[in-house]
Structures are given as structure tokens and as C-alpha cells.
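Practice set, problem 2.
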Amino acid sequence: MNERRNAAPGLIDGLTADLGGPRTNALLERLDAAVPWEELARPIRRLYKGNGRAAWPVVTMLKAMLLAKWFNLSDPQLEECLQDRLSFRRFVGLSLTDRTPDETTFVVFRRRLRQGGIQDELFETVLKHIEGQGLLVREGTLVDATIIEAPRGQKGAPEKRDQDATFTRKCGEIRFGYKAHIAVDRSGVVTDYRLSTAKHHDSRYIDEMTAAETKGVFADSAYMDRRRTRQLVERGVVPGITFRGTSKRPELSEWQKRWNAMLCGIRAKVEHPFAMMKHNLGYRRVRYRGLERNRLDLCLTLMACNIKRSLSLHPT
């Protein structure tokens, strides 16, 4: 791969080294130290063919992608912030004399990742790095799903909607978009994920996401299934799935109510990544059209969540 080299920090970079928001600088320093950048860059470099025009450094582009996630930036906003904010330029490795990648460069880079099919490899690299630091609990897997909205478009023009997104009903409300399914460690780190159209049932991917689990599987009543419970017990895995009433027995027994209450505290951990995605990172609506584009975007979002979550798991 023919990779361009960013300029070394010069005199003016040294004179401005102390400028910038102290809180942002401190956070970016911690995030920078928490990511195995070279390990992530290695499979991406394989996607570049020949020795043509020098490409932007892969690490610079990766840092820009995650920076956009942590600060909820669109491509035009990311380009402007890299031109405008000293702390952001330092983080991605740009000196004050370097050119700045433009928004088209970010689009091309994401397309390369998507077409290369390496997003799962990148996700696993971050996860293994976190596990290597001893930050995973490995005492069960928590599973849940959430709807990520997509624009519905104008009335009377269904052909202009995202054709991969679908409608579903949630709590009596019609929703349109996709559904993010995640498996979470007891530490609050996401260990697996799927993205589907919104009409897929919450429980569609729980079995494949927990196939290797040996301790316990925890989920809400939408995942309750006798066959699943029986199979988990046969594997020696605790079926930590909350009970729900049936048409024949609408009322739960006292022990079922106690079981559900006990599981509430355990299952609460699965809500932490969703809260970070939607409230901290602004991932309430998809940015792109099409399942594959949004699957890559979900992968990058969850990588950003896991990296940020790992900061709070380190002993103080």
C-alpha cells in the first residue's frame, strides 16, 4: 500500500500544544491509548491494491471515523472540525501544515471497508483487546434489541423510502427503520451484534449470538420460548429469561414474579450500550440507506461504545 506520510509536528505545533479544551484533550488522550490502532489498520491495508496514488494513512482515517462517532459528527461536520479544532487534528495525527481529508474521502474509506467485508474482524479486534486487559466478566450474556429509526419520506412517494427498512409496531406505535440486536457481557461491553429490518422479531438472533455461552443467557420476556429454555438447560446454561403470562395463565406465580424481579438487576446492563448509542453518540436514526451501509455504521458505533466503555472499567 502506498500510504502518504503526515508532516512531523513543527514549531507552530509546539507553540500550540497546550491550546484546546483541557477536558477534550484529556478524553482524547485516554481514548487514543485505549485503541490498538495498528492491529485495526493491518487488515484494512490489505484492501489497497498496487502502488498508485498515495492514500491517506489508515490510522488517520480510522481515528477520524471513531472521532465522528464519539462526537456525533456527519462527514461535512467531521471535515470542518478537523480543519477547525486543534485537539482533533492532534488526535488523528495531522500537523497544522497538513492538508485535511474531505468528506468524499470519508465516503470512499467507508465504502472500502464495506466492500472488503472486514467490519466483523475490526469489531473482534477491539473486543479481544478489551478482553486482553481483563475487563470482560464472562459470567453470562445479556441479549436485547432496539429500533433505529429511518426517514419515512414524503407521503404518497413510497419509492423514495429506504427499500431495506420496514415498518413495525412497538407499544402501539408504528415505527419505520431497522432493528439492532446486541449481545452484552456482564461488564456492559457488546460482544456480538446483528442488524435487521425492523419487522424481524427481537428473538430472531438470540440463539446464534449465544451459541458459545456456557454460564447464562439473560433476556426479557420477548425471548421466552420453551424449546430455547430446554436447550439451554441441556447445555448447562442458566436460562435467565423473564416469564410472561399466557392466555391460559395470565397471572404469574409468586416464584415467577420473584425470578423476574431478580433478573431485572442483571438485565439492566444491556440497556447501558443502548443509552450510550442513543444519548451520548446520537445514534437514534440511521445515517444511510441500505442494510449493508447501516450494518457497517452500527459496527463502528458499537466499536466506539466498547472503547469508551472500557475507560470506565479500568480500576482507578
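Problem 2, part (b): a different protein.
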Amino acid sequence: MQITTPSQDRAKDLRPSFREGVRGRLALPADGLDALVGNGSPVGSDRWWDAVSGLGTPVRTPGPDETDVTLFLFRSADAGAVYVDVQPFTDRSRLADGLMERVPGTDVWWAAFATGPGWISAYGFLPLDEVPVAPAERNTDAARSWWLGLLERSVPDPLNPDPSFRGMRGDVRSVARGPRAPRAVERGADDARGTLDLHVWHRSRVADYPVWTYVAPGAEAGAPGGAGLPLVVLHDGQVWERLDVAATLDALVARGALPPFVAVLVSSLDQASRTRDLPGSTAYYDAVADGLLPQVAERLAARGVRVTSDPARTVVAGQSFGGLAALQAVRHRPDRFGLALGQSASLWWPGLDDPASRDVAAWLRSAPARDERVVLQVGAHEGDLTAANREVRDLLVARGEHVDYAEVDGGHDWAWWSACLGDGLVTLLGSDGGQ
């Protein structure tokens, strides 16, 4: 949550110097913190921190040309260095952009960025004994492991009033967003609640997968005309369960944006299993279609809930590898999966060194056009991945298919994935399967 400070009249006269372009790390003048958080108390005093706590962090104030100044603050008297990990501005190739500056003689660490009004990012702080030094070989597995190990030590922002969340690696993150950034619809106090039940899918000769089955309020009444309820298969279910996706789904149903439906949240277990299953394993898609979903349907039938087997009313949704898996599932099993929602889908097409990308490219070039919808959402700052999603969008449009495409002012990030998931589902199922 970012709040315009009471010192906006002074802050509007800030003219921060940009390191590059119109977005990114800022160098503030010496009195910059006073201008953004000025309350008449010395920077770093207890009264000053009380003012910061009252504002909530990061502190945001409007800057020039539709650009916000977003100020991250961290309190530590003992750290030798503090790093803020925030997308799309910092990563292992730009460590300097994430190193916070310390106000001399205080416990105040700060970093300011120029952000757009629609910008959204998860972030965390890394208090360290010394400035981190990346391995010399940056584009290696060892460098990536070093980076991920470092991020696992990050801590959320204690002064951010919005809830933090636990991501894929189990690290706890806070969320920063501009005033026009997407937000998930919130469940009201009086909204009816669906059920979310955990069971284990015993996938023969492979592994046991935790699976959460969400049944929306009103599901027992069934779909109009006696049809089975629409179905959503959501990859990386363990993260969605921690993100309390049921609250978002309840809110969408309560507001009539979605009809009553069933969602199946399938755990990806661990990184090795996720890499094995999601990018291009036809055996996995067959196992979900022919093994898991019939079990779910049978279990729910015992409760009087009937689930559709119509591919035109069945969504496969996922993020990153899971987004690629959504497209692969509708390609490989059109008899069971018809609607795809890919968020930051790992479409490294036309990277022909990747088998899954070759499959998607060949399918788009040669297969008959389909009537069912595809939703693609991607961060505007994901580099080659953004470009690949644009190319797939263009191919779908050229084929005459129904594709809805959106770019978000963010990176490869659960913060906006969770905020935008509902929009994608409404596009696909808001009129009961897009029909």
C-alpha cells in the first residue's frame, strides 16, 4: 500500500535525477527524505519512525510526468548492507540498484524508485553483514542457486499495512503497488463461502500430489439446464492455497462475475517435479485428464455436485511453466481441456532449442483454428518472455482464434498473478464458458 504523504506540497517540487529512462532507481537530493516524510522530526528519530509507521510503507508520492516516487525504508542499526528485491528494477545482474543507502548516523536505510501508477511488485528486504558479491559467472546454475539462496533469507516489510504472502520458495513477501495497479476483488463479510477440501492424488508409479478442491457457494443447485458446473484446473495449487485464492473466488461468485463452479488446485510438489510435469509432459496432462479429474468428479457427485466434462467449459490456468502447461494441455487434450489462462507463460517460442516451445509453435502454425478462448497475461518487464507472449498472441489472432491479451506493469511475479487471476477467469467463464 502506498500513501501520499502529508508533505505532498513539498514533495511536488522534488526533481529526482533518473539513472536511466523514465522508470528505475532514483537519486534523491539531500533533503529528499525530509520532503517525502517530513514531520519536523530529525530523520531516524523515534518520532520520525512513528510518522513513517503512520503512513505505511513504501511511501509513494506523485512525481513528474505520471511518474510516482516510491520510497522503500528499512530500519536496522546493525546491518552492514541492506538489499531490497523489487521487480523489475533489481536482480543478480544489477545488484547495485537494489543496495539501499544509509542515512549517516541513523538506522535508516532507503531506496527510491520511479514507478508508474499501474506498477505492482512483490518485494522483500535482505539485511546483510556486508555488500553481496555475485559469482563471476553470472549466467550459470551456480549463480542462479546463489541468488535464490540469498532471496530465501529476505524478510517482509513490517510497516506495509497490506498482507504479506508466502511464495513458491516459501519466502514471505510484501506487495507494493501504484494507485491504479490491479487488485484482487475482496470477499465481503456477508459473502457466502465455498468449501476448500484437501485430499491426495495418488498418481500411479509417480508421486502423491496434494490437491485442493474448491466448490463455490451455490454449487449444489447445479448449472442452468442441469449441466455440470464449469471446471478450473489451477497449477501450483500449494501457492494458491497459501494465497487464499478461495476468498477471491468467493467474491467473484458473490458479485455475479462468475457462475458457481469447481476449481481443482494441483500441487506441483517441488521444483524438480514441477520441471518434469509442467513444461511439456503429455503423460502428466493425460494423468490429470484421465486420472485426477474423474476422481474429483466422483467424489463431488457423492455430495450432489455435478462437474462438467465439456472442454468448452473447462479452464486450465497457470503461471510461468504452469502457463505454458495450460496451452500444452489444450493442444494435447482438446477433448478435455478447451480454455487456457496463461500468466507469464514460459513461451520461449520461437526458441527452437526447447521441445515444449517447438510443440506450441508447430501447433499454432499447422493445427485448425479453435473456437475456444485463450487468455494471455504477461508482465511488461519480462524481456524475451514478454516478446514471446506477444508473438503467440499475434499468431492466435492471425489464425482467427479468440485471444484476450494484457500486459501488466510488473515482472515475473506472484503479486500481479494473484491480482489478475480473477480477471482471466471472468473472461473465460463469466458467461459460463465464454459461450
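Answer key, part (b): Residues 195-429 form a domain with the Rossmann fold fold (CATH 3.40.50.1820). Residues 47 and 303 are 58 Å apart (CA to CA).
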